[in-house]
Design goal:
It comes from Dryobates pubescens (Downy woodpecker). Keywords: Repeat, Signal. Pfam families: MIR (PF02815). This is Stromal cell-derived factor 2. The structure is a single chain. This protein is mainly beta and 129 residues long. The chain has one domain: Trefoil (Acidic Fibroblast Growth Factor, subunit A) (Trefoil). 6% of the residues lie in helices and 29% in strands. It has a 4-stranded antiparallel sheet, with no helix packed on it. Strand 2 and strand 3 form a beta hairpin. The chain is globular, with a radius of gyration of 16 Å.
């Protein structure tokens, strides 16, 4: 329930496998951009699992678009339409792109929404006298 600040480094962990979203300086198989994969065990990984939240304002808000920039290589988490044939037919390739574009905006579509804490509400709406 802790708010995520724009500019904050985070790790994105797949709940089903416990692996982190990971990238490194290898070419992705379909587009030739930077490969993005899953790495680690039970949420544990390494520094190549860190992504910076790029958004406007102070916090990443529920309905706003957001970008994720890889903390070590500076690429943006992207999807451009390339699809695998086998073994995961129709699955789109997610990769890292050096330049920001429309292909690297993300928006939350499902998940668990937690009400902001009272401290967060006070910080967000507090005005000095």
């Amino acid at each position: 329930g802790t708010p995520v600040r724009c500019g904050q480094a985070i790790r994105l962990t797949h709940l089903g496998t416990g692996r982190n979203l990971h990238s490194h300086r290898f070419a992705s198989p379909l587009s030739g951009n930077q490969e993005v994969s899953a790495f680690g065990e039970a949420g544990e990984g390494d520094y190549l699992d860190d992504w910076t939240v790029v958004c406007s304002g102070t916090y990443w808000v529920r309905d706003a678009e957001v970008r994720f920039q890889h903390a070590s290589t500076d690429v943006f988490l992207s999807v451009t339409g390339e699809q695998y044939g086998r073994p995961i037919h129709g699955q789109k390739e997610v990769h890292g792109m050096a330049a920001s574009s429309q292909n690297n905006y993300w928006k939350v579509m499902e998940g668990i929404f937690m009400q902001p804490s009272e401290v967060f509400k006070a910080e967000q709406y507090h005005a000095e006298l």
